[in-house]
């Protein structure tokens, strides 16, 4: 099949790469020349500056210019295309609604060109972007407005988790396709032929609106589950003495009806999707005159979690941040990615700066260059207080306290390093419960404050 993928970020690049593995002829289109040059170089450091996903670079290197092409001009490639996947950003607006300007800019451009094409073979425009319910219908009106001949629309939401995007694209839990005609379902079945009738992959065909709703329901349910553990599990461990969080988790999730995924307590879930999608669904409910109380609470709990350890540190451990040097480990929203969108670290930095912190000594295994973009001193002079290091050890050296914000494996068992580098008294704020042997640390004079446990003062 000849496939065009419009937008080559996390979703588009992964989708284009994996489709090229299955022998489709894939044209990945973007307006960002720097990205395209990086992808065309097939160099790891260049590609990972934009999208850092395990396994992605080798697929690009193998299929580049054979099955996978990168381009900034659609005109020469539209002829003969079977499908155009729309993988465009849909960020949140201040009122929570989805900003569809990038999406419709691309759609208008594509429809104008499709209207002029010579070949009138059936082409399907397929939404992979997460878009409000009813957007596929608006896409259909665009096709009519531009008089595009022989084209259909479909919704095929993407569920890939960052950090595991390639594996999950190769073996998704499900493929959801919403379309209106058998002809369009058939085209998409041919694209996903390796998933149709697969024993372990559910291939679900439905209406475009249902497909759009599945995406929002799934994402908000996942955040609800995470927030349940934060809003109830963590609170239990903090409110009552002698509750072992790991045992609580094991005991509860032993019930096969209860998921182990998400059954952890943390300083909130970030990433490009959860916060944005729940805000969008709350907005969509509000606009249709329905209440969204449950979702509003879930969103509020998740936001609260991101910085509440700093409040607890002040209240329970008497911590003062003014002029202090705070080591901040983990800037990405989670391990194995350089993505910082909606990361808890963004709020931690904002709160520390507002409390007059002297220096933030930051380290992340993958997200330092991304962090420099977010914390650009040209936008806010206070960001000059952030100093970046290339190891946890260097970030810890000379710090007065530590905040762990992301769950990179290398932070597990950090206690030895802490003991070697920083003498007590010293406060450790652990947003990810990465230090299981905290007892030894408190015995040696360190204070330990974790999500889901009461403050452990130095013994
Ligand atoms: N990131 C995820 O984990 C994830 C998972 C599932 C779904 N989604 C959804 O997928 C969509 C894309 O997300 P993403 O994380 O890949 O975004 P992204 O910001 O990483 O990438 C978007 C790309 O689109 C390009 N672009 C912008 N305007 C364009 C235009 N007019 N024409 C062509 N290209 C244009 C940008 O240059 C960028 O390369 C969003 O709706 C998101 O909610 C994301």
Structural write-up:
The structure is a single chain. This protein is of the alpha/beta class and 459 residues long. It has a domain of 205 residues: Rossmann fold. Helices cover 42% and strands 14% of the residues. The chain contains 17 helices and 14 strands. It has an 8-stranded mixed beta sheet with strand order 3-2-1-4-5-6-7-8, sandwiched between helices. It has a 6-stranded parallel beta sheet with strand order 11-10-9-12-13-14. The radius of gyration is 24 Å and the shape is elongated. It starts with a strand and ends in a 9-residue tail after the last strand. 47% of the residues are buried. The site of nicotinamide-adenine-dinucleotide has 27 residues, from helix 1 and helix 5.
Mean pLDDT score, rounded?
97
Number of strands: 14
Task: Tell me the major beta sheet.
Answer: 8 strands, mixed
Radius of gyration: 24 Å
Q: Strand order across the biggest sheet?
A: 3-2-1-4-5-6-7-8
* Distinct small molecules bound, one entry per kind: nicotinamide-adenine-dinucleotide
Task: Based on the coordinates given, report the CATH architecture of the domain at 2-206.
Answer: 3-Layer(aba) Sandwich
Number of helices: 17
Distance between the termini: 66 Å
The 3D shape can be described as elongated
Estimate what percentage of residues fall within beta strands: 5-15%
Q: State the helicity in percent bands.
A: 40-55%
Report the uncertain regions. none
Provide the CATH superfamily of the domain at 2-206: NAD(P)-binding Rossmann-like Domain
CATH uppermost class of the domain at 2-206: Alpha Beta
Category from helices, strands and their pairing: alpha/beta
CATH topology heading of the domain at 2-206: Rossmann fold
């Amino acid at each position: 099949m000849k496939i065009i993928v419009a937008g080559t970020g996390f979703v588009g690049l992964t989708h284009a790469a994996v489709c090229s593995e299955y022998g489709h002829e894939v044209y990945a289109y973007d307006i960002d020349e720097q990205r395209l040059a990086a992808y065309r170089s097939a160099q790891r450091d260049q590609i990972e500056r934009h999208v850092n996903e395990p396994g992605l670079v080798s697929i690009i290197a193998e299929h580049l210019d054979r099955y996978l092409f990168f381009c900034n001009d659609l005109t020469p490639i539209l002829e003969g295309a079977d499908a155009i996947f729309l993988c465009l950003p849909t960020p949140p607006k201040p009122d929570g609604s989805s900003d569809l300007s990038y999406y419709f800019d691309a759609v208008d451009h594509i429809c104008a060109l499709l209207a002029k094409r010579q070949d009138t073979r059936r082409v399907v425009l397929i939404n992979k972007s997460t878009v409000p319910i009813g957007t596929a219908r608006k896409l259909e009106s665009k096709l009519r407005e531009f008089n595009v001949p022989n084209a259909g629309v479909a919704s095929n939401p993407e569920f890939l988790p960052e950090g595991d995007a390639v594996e999950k694209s190769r073996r998704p839990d499900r493929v959801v396709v919403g379309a209106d005609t058998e002809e369009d379902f058939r085209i998409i079945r041919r694209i996903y032929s390796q998933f149709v009738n697969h024993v372990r992959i559910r291939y679900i065909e439905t209406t475009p609106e249902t497909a759009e709703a599945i995406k929002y329901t799934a994402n908000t349910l996942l955040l609800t589950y995470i927030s349940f553990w934060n809003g109830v599990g963590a609170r239990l461990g903090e409110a009552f003495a002698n509750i072992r969080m790991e045992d609580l988790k094991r005991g509860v999730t032993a019930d096969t009806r209860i998921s182990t995924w998400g059954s952890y307590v943390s300083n909130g879930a970030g990433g490009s999707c959860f916060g944005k999608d729940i805000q969008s669904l709350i907005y969509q409910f509000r606009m249709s005159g329905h209440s969204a109380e449950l979702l509003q609470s879930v969103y509020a709990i998740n936001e609260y979690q991101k910085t509440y350890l700093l409040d607890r540190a002040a209240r329970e451990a008497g911590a003062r941040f003014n002029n202090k040097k705070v080591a901040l480990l983990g800037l990405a929203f989670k391990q194995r990615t350089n993505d910082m969108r909606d990361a808890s670290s963004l709020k931690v930095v904002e709160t520390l700066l507002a409390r007059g912190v002297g220096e933030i000594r930051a380290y992340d295994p993958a997200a330092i260059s991304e962090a420099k973009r977010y914390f650009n001193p040209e936008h806010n002079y206070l960001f000059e207080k952030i100093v970046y290091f290339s190891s946890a050890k260097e970030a810890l050296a000379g710090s007065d306290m530590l905040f762990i914000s992301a769950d990179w494996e290398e932070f597990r068992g950090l206690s030895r390093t802490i003991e070697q580098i920083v003498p007590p008294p010293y406060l450790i704020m652990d947003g990810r419960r990465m230090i299981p042997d905290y007892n030894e640390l408190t015995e040696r004079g360190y204070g330990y404050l974790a999500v889901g446990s009461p403050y452990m003062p130095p013994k």
